[in-house]
Amino acid sequence: MTSTREHRTHPEAASVAETLRVALEVALPTLAGGVIKRRPAMMAVAGKLQFDRRAVRLLRRLRDRHHGHPLKLRVPGRSVGLALSGADVKRLLAGAPTPFSPSTVEKRAALGHFQPHGVLISDAAERTARRRFTEAVLQPGRPLHELAAPFARAIAEEAAVLPQSATLDWDTFNVTWWCLVRRVVLGSAARDDTTLTDQLERLRLDANWAYAHPKRKQLREEFRRRLAEHLKRAEPGSLAAVIAAEDAADAPDQVAHWLFAFDAAGMATYRTLALLASHPAELERARSELDGLDLTEPHQLSYLRACVLDAVRLWPTTPMILRETTEETSWGPAGTTVLIFTPFFHRDPDLPYADRFEPDLWLDGRAAENPALVPFSAGPAICPGRDLVRFCASTMLANLLREHRYEQASGPVLSPERPLPATLDNFHLKLKPVG
């Protein structure tokens, strides 16, 4: 029986040729780039060949051919659906955790490498308590976290030591970003603990292979013990102090996910900086927002936050959102995997702003009218760290832009005069301070 709790959408059967095209032009490039930890070499190839552009064109043709109906892909031994309309995206994301669970077989296999008890892959019985804990610490819906003041000071201090005398590349920015992340999450005593995040990086690289790579249980336990020691210190002014007050037994697994997510936040911040470096009007508006502000104190910085949101729209840090049905629905039997390829919906050629930098759409209501724009997902499983991430990213950008202007030194041309690239390789993108 089809669930009465969701709209009766009826997938159309994809042909074998259509399924193969989706596998080769959508799924394979996404997997090759690294879904848990980006692979720089593959991202360089993806940037040069603009894989996402090809994927968007394919899905647009499929949407037109099938009149927006979802597709049931011909995957041997599996029931797999592909969303092709914004209405279906809205229903799928609103239907978490049942009948559309965020905990899919692929996610459980991948995230189990470093956070086997994380909320994202929890079953319904455990999810509620873990989600409640996560929201209590990260405080979604609150533009300024209760610890925004010490976080703002930490961001200002880290931005001040970021080398600015030569070309700014990803590696240089990333080192500073991780110093900041460790301070925000675990406290200043963890600032230089690169071993912790190096261990996490190795586990995440394994996680790219999901069930095709054996789990390194010893490394995972070493990482967990090291993380638990930082959390035990509960340093004031860090998330660890808030965590201590919540007393959650599986806190290390939740924190491991936050560290994982902050990696994507760093990519979004750096890409936003590149966009502002190449869009003079948007840069001047962002800098004017900083007039008279003491950046060692927290501020909402609405326009800079909108800039970050649009960078994530243009280049989603989660290109594939997965859901798994917990019961029979119109998508198929229980256990059906449903795919949402976010670059297609964010770069839909029918959108007038598809290929341009348009921060205002997050301020004037246009984004809210489009349920398929989901830079931080949506529905009950929406990213609980979205407001904290936007605060950290916008405050870092504010500190960098207050003191310097930048111009591109390498990478694809980002310009308001031409369509922005569909795939952007941040690893080989360089900026140059010019004053």
UniProtKB/TrEMBL annotation:
InterPro entries, per the entry: Cyt_P450, Cyt_P450_sf, Cytochrome_P450_monoxygenase
Top-level division of the source organism's lineage: Bacteria
Family the entry assigns: Belongs to the cytochrome P450 family.
Protein name: Cytochrome P450
